[in-house]
């Protein structure tokens, strides 16, 4: 989605002249219709007008886009994975909008010299022979796609015990989270992570793994979470590292926000080089 996109470019528009002339409603599709069944990527989402961000999040949550102009309405399905990135140094999202994003991932700091060299070398190899470069990772990519499909099919069978709900609620309360979006997202993300592992039920490890992604942009106070709600047999699982207080305020969401109100989210740390990526699955 381009930074300067208008509302009509995003949601689509109705040709009122054709309605008056031919008495036939004509709908010009927007980006939301084109993204149906795929991914809509928004760079610098914090620089978009709040109205457009709100529209994006509403449609992503409902899966339906409704366009109304002068008493004429049109609706169409718009189910897509919404991914947005932002640099908080260039401006912030309103807290109400920030909370609408399901998961938040902080991009790593500056790359090492070795990483820079590897990325440039891989990029050069891709430019010289794209087909040969992609063939090197064909088997790995096929295995990754199969694992994603298996996880999606197994997601409906993953069970959640009562202690999971209690643990998530206690941690959200201790982190000073407002509303229930964090609880719902945390539960779905933990289930998705369990399905990705091939497990039959949500474990403490699943809860801990997705915790930073859920609370990074919602935490209002640091917390020392106890383990009262943990099952005894999993009490030895290391707790996830809590993000520092400095991420709140201007540092919230750190270097990037990647949301998935979708069935899956891929973490593309090697995207610049074209190398295969490791997935982080969410629903």
TrEMBL record:
The keyword Coiled coil applies. Keywords: ATP-binding, Coiled coil, Nucleotide-binding. Transmembrane segments: none annotated. Residues 28-88 form the Magnesium chelatase ChlI-like catalytic domain. Pfam families: AAA_lid_2 (PF17863), Mg_chelatase (PF01078). InterPro entries: ChlI/MoxR_AAA_lid, Mg-chelatase_DI-like, Mg_chelatse_chII-like_cat_dom, P-loop_NTPase. Residues 166-225 form the ChlI/MoxR AAA lid domain. One of its GO terms (molecular function) is ATP binding. Residues 223-245 are annotated as: Disordered. Residues 134-161 form a coiled coil. Pathway: Porphyrin-containing compound metabolism; bacteriochlorophyll biosynthesis. The keyword GTP-binding does not apply. Involved in bacteriochlorophyll biosynthesis; introduces a magnesium ion into protoporphyrin IX to yield Mg-protoporphyrin IX. Belongs to the Mg-chelatase subunits D/I family. This is Mg-protoporphyrin IX chelatase. It comes from Vreelandella sulfidaeris. The lineage of its organism: Bacteria, Pseudomonadati, Pseudomonadota, Gammaproteobacteria, Oceanospirillales.
């Amino acid at each position: 989605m381009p930074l300067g996109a208008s509302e009509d470019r995003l949601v689509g528009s109705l040709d009122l002249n054709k309605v008056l002339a031919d008495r036939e409603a004509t709908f010009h599709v927007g980006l939301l219709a084109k993204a149906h069944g795929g991914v809509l990527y928004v760079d610098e989402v914090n620089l978009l007008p709040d109205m457009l961000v709100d529209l994006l999040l509403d449609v992503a949550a409902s899966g339906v886009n409704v366009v109304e102009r002068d008493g004429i309405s049109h609706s169409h399905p718009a189910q897509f994975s919404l991914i947005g990135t932002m640099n908080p140094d260039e401006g912030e999202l309103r807290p109400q909008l920030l909370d609408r994003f399901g998961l938040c991932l902080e991009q790593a700091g500056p790359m090492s010299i070795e990483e820079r060299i590897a990325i440039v070398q891989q990029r050069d190899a891709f430019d010289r022979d794209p087909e040969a470069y992609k063939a090197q990772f064909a088997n790995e990519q096929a295995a990754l796609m199969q694992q994603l499909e298996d996880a999606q099919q197994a997601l409906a069978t993953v069970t959640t015990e009562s202690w999971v709900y209690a643990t998530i609620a206690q941690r959200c309360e201790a982190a000073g989270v407002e509303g229930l979006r964090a609880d719902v997202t945390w539960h779905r993300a933990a289930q998705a992570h369990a399905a990705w592992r091939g497990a039959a039920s949500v474990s403490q490890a699943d809860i801990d793994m997705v915790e930073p992604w859920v609370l990074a942009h919602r935490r209002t106070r640091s917390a020392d979470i106890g383990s009262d709600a943990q099952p005894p047999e999993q009490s030895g699982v290391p707790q996830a590292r809590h993000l520092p207080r400095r991420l709140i305020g201007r540092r919230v969401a750190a270097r990037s926000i990647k949301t998935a109100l979708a069935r899956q989210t891929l973490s593309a740390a090697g995207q610049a080089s074209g190398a295969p990526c490791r997935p982080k699955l969410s629903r």
